[in-house]
Amino acid sequence: MNFGLYLPLLAGLAFCNHCRRPADGQADALALPAAIAMGLATAIMLLLGGGLLTLADSARPGLPLPLVASVLQAASALLLAGTLQRLAAGTAAALGLHWPLLLLNSLLAGLPLYFLPSASSAAASLCAALLSAALFTLLLAQFATLPHRLQRCALPARLQGRPALLLCALIIALALHGLGARLS
Amino acid sequence: MTLVLRLLLLLLAIWLLGKVLRSSAQKLRPATSTLPPLAERIDAILPQTQCGQCGHAGCLPYAQALARGEDSINRCPPGGEDGIRKLAALLHTDYLPFAADAPPQKPKAVALIDEATCIGCTLCIQACPVDAILGSAKQMHTVLADECTGCELCLAPCPVDCISMRPATSQPADWRWGYPVIAIKAVKPGSSS
Amino acid sequence: MSRPSILPAHTDPGSQPLLTTPLPAQLRLWLQGASCCVEVGQRVLKHQLLAEADSEFGVAVHAPTSGHIRAIGPLPQALPDAPLLDGLQLQPDGLDEALSLPAESNWPALSALALAMRLQDMGVMGQHGPLLPLAWAAKASPLALLIINAVENEPFLQADSMLLCEQAAAVAEAMAMLGRILQPARLVLAIQQEQGAAINALRSLAADQCWQLEVIQAPYPAGDEAQLLRALARPEESGNSLCLPVAGVHAAGRAILHGEPCISRIVTVSTALKQSHNMRALLGSPVADLLTCAGLSSQQHALVHGGGLRGFALPDATIGIHQHSHCLLVRPRQPALTAQPCIRCGDCASICPSQLQPQELYWHCSRQELAQAQHWRLADCSQCGLCSAVCPSQLPLLDSFRLASQQLLLAEQQQCAADAARQRHRFRQFRLERDKQEKAQRLAERAAQQAAKLAQQAAEPTSHAEPTATAADKQAAIAAAMARAAERQQQRPAVAPSVNSSEREAAIAANRQAAIEAAMARAAARKAAQEAAKAAAADAPAMAKDEDQNKPGLNQQQQALIQAAMHRANAQKAAASSSPASLDQDKKALIAAAMARAAARKAAGDETEQDK
Ligand code: SF4
Ligand code: SF4
Ligand code: SF4
Ligand code: SF4
């Protein structure tokens, strides 16, 4: 795994997240808060998963990393989803913080982090987790505001809506791939 | 050390998420309890012409019927399409165009009583829903143009047909800028430079 | 904010003289907010009143010269899109015979309202309608700050500077007059730094006067009322201050101190950016005459009324000028520019003096999303036109902002009207309900009185007259109820107005029928009561022997009360199930309840009478 793959993966993930949002007036008004909330939730899950992994590693070293990491990431996602369900079910649902989505984000954004070559030390992995959460938030916000901005472009009718968005996602993914390839 | 830092960051992120959730919860429910009843809110949108073209005895009964879900939102011609849009937004329903047989929309007009013909029968006073007609038995009647909503309810009862509708008088404030016109350049095939 | 590069520096009128246009062959006066008081063909003298203000916003129109009225009717006006509005065509006869109007001899005694009305009658116009708004003058609140606005309201206008250079003394006189009558705590003449000649002309006069000279340094839209108030008013003054254009103030001085109505104004005719002429032109002079006077022909040029930023094109040169025509811009004809999509260059946002985002605003305005436009602070747009001027895509930004704010204003007015109508409608319903109740009460009381009187007449202490009397009462109550029903039917045209006219006629006929029937019923009831009373009188001797006289009466009263209570309960139940289907039942129940109540009340009344 390297950044050249990981960063486009984040872009794809953000696009999937965006596609899951319902398209009505209220969702439009909450698009930005929803993006921020999902970004924060991802940050929490990454930090929690990483922390738990460190603890597990120190308690009983020698466990197979892929298995433990995926279990812990899934556990942290489900923990967060459960807490949200208990404390603020309605708001969380309106902001699109559903458990399948949280699980997906936690696994896809979290697991590759442990296999990045640069994340060998604890501080570096913490840094990587924070930065990837921040990038993910930015991408989500980008996709939340894109439809409005695309509306104002004189696009051909065939491209309006989803296709234009998909093209944008592709362009972003390509750019991020370029960036990631240079980083790693 | 990094574990402590990680914990701190975790707490920070949880706190931030809590704030975001709380603020959007407020946005979601703008204190429904303090809002007036639905019929009142619908009534506030209706144009208050009180003309009865919606098939109800005025705007408030129509609003009440809408609040109970007993009528559709495209019944009020004075409100125009804008009014239907507002109703659709308030009631969370889809926009409905006017029915084909709906009464046509007219520009705002006010009633004018031909004072020479008026016989002072007071029938129009009884018909006017907003008390915009002044007069008394066997005396000439007149319309208060500022109060008249243009509902046309006074036209039919008049036994001598002396009431007519006039376009509302224009004031300097009524004058409108025209729509901006964007000149369109004709592109002739073959004349590309 | 740096001075926008598209704006030329202000030029002073300098050495150029003030021209006077020759008498035109035709004058076209605008009659908005004024009703004509002359006739076609009539000869009028200079200064004669042609039209009186007919609303709070109108001003009177006076003849600029002597001549004949040729036409009264819709004429094209110097407004965007040249709408046809009522106008008056005057053909001068060249004699220029003037009516001498009396000057206000006792002007210091005028009140603010009297002054405002006098100015309206003299045709002195301010920014919106009469120079002093009547509504403001009627309030007679103390004035903290009076600003005389001599800032040119667009770049390369010179009309106000010219006026100050030529007529500084007259303006000073007029300001002293206004200061004397309106008694502002502070009187300020605002002028822009670039208007050097005018400042010099005023400096010499400003000493020991009641007003101060304020030199404004801010760039272009500084001449707007709102901007001036923001710049000059102290926080405590901002609530009650007034801003008047200097041209209007000068005209007010002429009108009050010399009795001259406002019949002319100074117009800047500007060709290229450098060359401009100022001329005093009679109101209503055709634009072509002004151009000729400036040595131009109207054929080869495109005409813009107003300055280069906020002006609008005039379709032809026969249109007459009006009180707001401070500038005519003459430009070589160019092919119409085409609008392109916004390229988001951001030029408009960086030049906007109100710190708005015109490109966002334009997007929402052009899609008629007024709520969004308001959110992007359309209300703060001073409509200065700078964004339109700099836009490389030639988008009609200013036009769409104007239109959108007009629409917002209109929506606000409609909302106000709707609120007023709602209130009046509710009050009417309340009034009808109240009238109905009062009428029923009156009828019931009258019937009760009659019955009691008859019973008394018949025999003094008769106990047996009671049942018949209550029967009569009941009949009266029925009559009252029927009368009420008839009344309700009469209101039906207002209540169910979707019926067409023939149906409505039928309904009205039915109402009359019902009213007649009700009257007949009432008469019948009265007769029945009389008969009952007679019968009671006949029975009286026999019944007089009865020992306890009150008992049957009491029983009946109790029964009536119980009945009434039951009826009321029924009525309440019926009212609780308030579906439209049960309307008839409702009505019936209400009528029944009302009857029962009337009967009970009467019974109680009888009791008290008997107690006496
Ligand atoms: S048609 Fe519209 S304006 Fe007329 S009564 Fe019905 S709701 Fe009111
Ligand atoms: S005057 Fe006539 S048209 Fe105007 S509100 Fe009254 S009934 Fe309606
Ligand atoms: S017209 Fe309005 S939006 Fe445009 S520059 Fe002026 S203030 Fe700004
Ligand atoms: S100046 Fe014109 S093209 Fe540039 S951002 Fe503004 S509206 Fe768009």
Automatic annotation (TrEMBL), chain A:
Membrane topology field: Multi-pass membrane protein
Superkingdom of origin: Bacteria
Transmembrane segments: 32-56, 63-84, 96-116, 123-144, 164-183
Keyword Translocase: yes
Claim: Transport is one of the keywords in the record: yes
Localization (cell): Endomembrane system
Key words, A-Z: Membrane, Translocase, Transmembrane, Transmembrane helix, Transport
GO cellular component: endomembrane system; membrane
Name of the protein described by the UniProt record: Electron transport complex protein RnfA
Native organism: Aquitalea magnusonii
Organismal lineage: Bacteria, Pseudomonadati, Pseudomonadota, Betaproteobacteria, Neisseriales
TrEMBL record, chain B:
Residues annotated as transmembrane: none
4Fe-4S domain location: 34-93
Annotated 4Fe-4S ferredoxin-type domain residues: 109-138, 139-168
Cofactor binding note of this UniProt entry: Binds 3 [4Fe-4S] clusters.
Pfam families per UniProt: Fer4_21, FeS
List of residues binding [4Fe-4S] cluster 3: C128, C148, C151, C154
SUPFAM superfamilies in the cross-refs: 4Fe-4S ferredoxins
InterPro entries recorded: 4Fe-4S_dom (IPR007202), 4Fe4S_Fe-S-bd (IPR017896), 4Fe4S_Fe_S_CS (IPR017900), Elect_transpt_cplx_RnfB/RsxB (IPR010207), RnfB/RsxB_Proteobac (IPR016463), RnfB_subfamily (IPR050294)
Binding site for [4Fe-4S] cluster 2: C118, C121, C124, C158
Keywords, in A-Z order: 4Fe-4S, Cell inner membrane, Cell membrane, Electron transport, Iron, Iron-sulfur, Membrane, Metal-binding, Repeat, Translocase, Transport
Cofactor: [4Fe-4S] cluster
Protein's GO biological process: electron transport chain
UniProt-annotated binding residues for [4Fe-4S] cluster 1: C51, C54, C59, C76
GO cellular component terms, A-Z: plasma membrane
GO molecular function: 4 iron, 4 sulfur cluster binding; electron transfer activity; metal ion binding
UniProt name for this protein: Electron transport complex protein RnfB
Biological source species: Aquitalea magnusonii
High-level lineage: Bacteria, Pseudomonadati, Pseudomonadota, Betaproteobacteria, Neisseriales
UniProtKB/TrEMBL annotation, chain C:
Organism listed in the record: Aquitalea magnusonii
Identification of the protein by name: Ion-translocating oxidoreductase complex subunit C
Domain 4Fe-4S ferredoxin-type residue range list: 333-362, 372-401
Subcellular location per the Swiss-Prot or TrEMBL entry: Cell inner membrane
Gene: rnfC
GO MF terms, alphabetically ordered: 4 iron, 4 sulfur cluster binding; electron transfer activity; metal ion binding
Coiled coil: none
Swiss-Prot/TrEMBL GO biological process terms: electron transport chain
Annotated stretches, region: Disordered: 438-501, 531-559, 565-584
